[in-house]
Design brief:
The protein has 294 residues and is mostly beta strands. The chain has a single domain (6-280), classed as 6 Propeller (Neuraminidase), CATH 2.120.10.30. It is built from one helix and 24 strands. It has one helix at residues 262-265, and strands at 6-10, 18-24, 29-34, 39-43, 50-54, 59-64, 70-74, 77-81, 88-92, 101-108, 114-120, 130-135, 141-148, 151-156, 162-167, 172-179, 184-193, 200-206, 212-217, 221-225, 231-236, 242-248, 254-259, 276-280. The strands form six sheets. The protein has a four-stranded antiparallel beta sheet, with no helix packed on it. A four-stranded antiparallel beta sheet has the order 2-3-4-5, with no helix packed on it. The protein has a four-stranded antiparallel beta sheet with strand order 6-7-8-9, with no helix packed on it. The longest helix is centred in the C-terminal third of the chain and has 4 residues, at 262-265. The protein is globular.
Amino acid sequence: MTPKHSIRRIGSVRCTVGEGPLWDVEQQALYFVDLVGRALWRYTPGSADMRNWPLPSMVGSVAIRSDGNAVVALQDGLYALDLQDGELSKLVDPQPPGDLTQCNDGKVDRRGRFLVGTQPRSLQDARPLGNLYAFEADGSTRLLDAGFQISNGPCWSPDSRFFYLADSRLNQIFVYDYDLERGSVSHRRPFANTLEFGGFPDGATVDADGNLWVAVCLAGKIVCYRPDATVAQVIDVPVRGVASVMFGGRHLDELFFTSIGNPLLNLPEDDLSGGLFVITGLQAQGLPERRFGG
C-alpha cells in the first residue's frame, strides 16, 4: 500500500540548477547548492533564515566540516568556505592540469572521506572524461574510478558495504562493493536504468532500510528502489526537473528535493521550477550524514 504523503514548496528561492541537498544533524539545517547560479544555500526549518553564500564558479556539491564550516566542490577543485565571513581557501584540485572537467556531485562516507565525481565542463561534450575521487581528511586525494560522462547520486548502503553512483547521460545507476576501511570501490555493475520512467538519474540518497531514493530528472519523479533493484514506490512531483533528494527534519523522516529551472531544460516556464520542496508522510527514515573529517 502506498503511504499517503504531501508535498510543499519551501520559501521562494529559485535556483538555476538546485543540487546537492545535505541535512546537517548538528545544526538541524539543510544545505544545497545552485550549480549554475554559483551559490551555497542554507535553510533552517522553523526560522525565516534562508541564507546564501555567493561563489566564484559553478559548484557541484557541499560537505560540512567537523568545525561546522563547509567544503564546496567548485569547478576547479575543493575549497574551504568559512560560513561566518564567506572567505574561501583552496584545498586541492584532484583534476590533472588542463583537464576539461569540473567537480560535480559528492558525499561523505562514514569514515569522513569526501567522495566527489567530475564531468566534462561542456554539456555538449559526451566523452567519458569524468572520474571519481576520494578526498581524505589529511588533504590527500585518490582516484577511485574513471570513465563517466556525468557522475551523480553518490551514496552508501546503511552498512557501507555497497556504494551507488549514476552516470546521468547513460540513464544508468551503478552499484559497487565498498571497502569502508580503505575507502575503495570494486566490482562496478548495473543496478537500475531510469529510461523506463522517461528521465535520467540525478541525485540520490539511501534510507535506514537500505532503499535507494533517486531523483529522475525530466520525468518529474522520485523513484524508490529496494536493495534488490525492484521498484518500491514512484512519487510524482510538481517539477519535471527534480534534481536531488535528501532526508532531513528532526526525525529524518522528511524528504527534501531540489530542482532545476525549466529554461535550462528547454521546458515551458512555470512558477515552481528551481524551487526547494519537502515531502512528508512517506513512512521512511533517512540516516544521519557524516561530516567531513578534515
